[in-house]
TrEMBL record:
Keywords from the UniProt entry: DNA-binding
InterPro entries registered for this protein in UniProt: Cro/C1-type_HTH (IPR001387), Lambda_DNA-bd_dom_sf (IPR010982), TransReg_Diox_bact_type (IPR050807)
Claim: DNA-binding is one of the keywords in the record: yes
Positions of the HTH cro/C1-type domain: 8-62, 136-190
Stated name of the protein: DNA-binding transcriptional regulator, XRE-family HTH domain
Gene Ontology cellular-component annotations: cytosol
UniProt GO MF annotations: DNA binding; DNA-binding transcription factor activity
């Protein structure tokens, strides 16, 4: 189910509205509301605006009802939904009607100042929902891997890879990590589509093992625990003896 479908159902039920009542308030058909909640069809911008008006809220409040969503940055930068161009409104709406809550969960781990959230925001406005699939296909081709070969390497079925590359489906956070690892890039590079070769270096098997453990610890921690892990790491790197020397960098 898409984020939009689940959010619409949640907002309607929290107000104790029936589908028929919301349809009447929105000026839409009851079957249309049913199809939106069943994720059978996606609303147009005009229909979306009618729905949120029927709910007694605004597009910005509907999209920003969960903190830390990429839309928060977009709407803040553009001074609200009404300041977006028609094309930007369409792209923001396409994002939330195509991505699932599970797929969106990795974005919720970061605030709007984080580079990952900033990249998501920029890509949504520029490209709609196409950037992950396009970048996946680009990196796979650069690695000279067929979909079948890549499927075996990352452990994801070929038909799923095909859906990702055609932008028919977005990978979950866990699968995004598997895809990035199989392509020898990190998640941000996969989203952004560019690799900073000046910073690239070979990762040893020991480093890869330690990084894997660190990720496990990080994602097992609560929000407060994750913040402390980051703070501890930042404090640790302020100590000269724990900093990597320039001559240790592998090009």
């Amino acid at each position: 189910m898409s984020y939009f479908s689940e959010k619409l159902k949640s907002e309607r039920q929290s107000r104790k509205f029936s589908q028929e009542y919301l349809a009447k308030k929105s000026g839409l058909g009851r079957r249309t509301i049913q199809d939106y909640e069943a994720d059978k069809i996606a609303p147009t911008v005009k229909s979306f605006e009618k729905i949120v008006k029927g709910l007694g809220t605004t597009p910005a409040d509907f999209l920003n009802s969960i903190n830390k969503l990429p839309s928060s940055s977009i709407l803040k930068e553009k001074n609200g939904w009404d300041s977006l161009t028609d094309d930007e409104k369409k792209k923001v709406l396409e994002y939330y009607t195509s991505i699932s809550v599970e797929s969106l969960s990795h974005v919720l781990r970061f605030d709007s100042s984080n580079s990952l959230a900033q990249i998501f925001t920029k890509k949504i406005v520029e490209n709609g929902t196409n950037f992950i699939g396009n970048n996946l296909q680009k990196f796979r081709n650069e690695a000279n891997l067929s979909r079948e070969e890549f499927s075996k390497k990352c452990g994801i079925p070929t038909d799923e890879i095909n859906k990702y590359e055609l932008n028919k489906k977005a990978p979950t956070c866990e699968l995004l990590g598997k895809i990035a690892k199989a392509l020898n890039v990190d998640e941000i590079e996969l989203i952004d589509g560019a690799i900073d070769s000046s910073k690239a270096r070979t990762i040893s098997s020991e480093e890869e093992y330690n990084l894997s453990k660190l990720k496990t610890y990080f994602y097992s921690a609560s929000d407060e625990g994750q913040e402390k892990i980051v703070t501890y790491a930042e404090d640790l790197l302020k100590v000269p003896e724990y900093q990597r020397a320039p001559d240790q960098e592998e090009k």
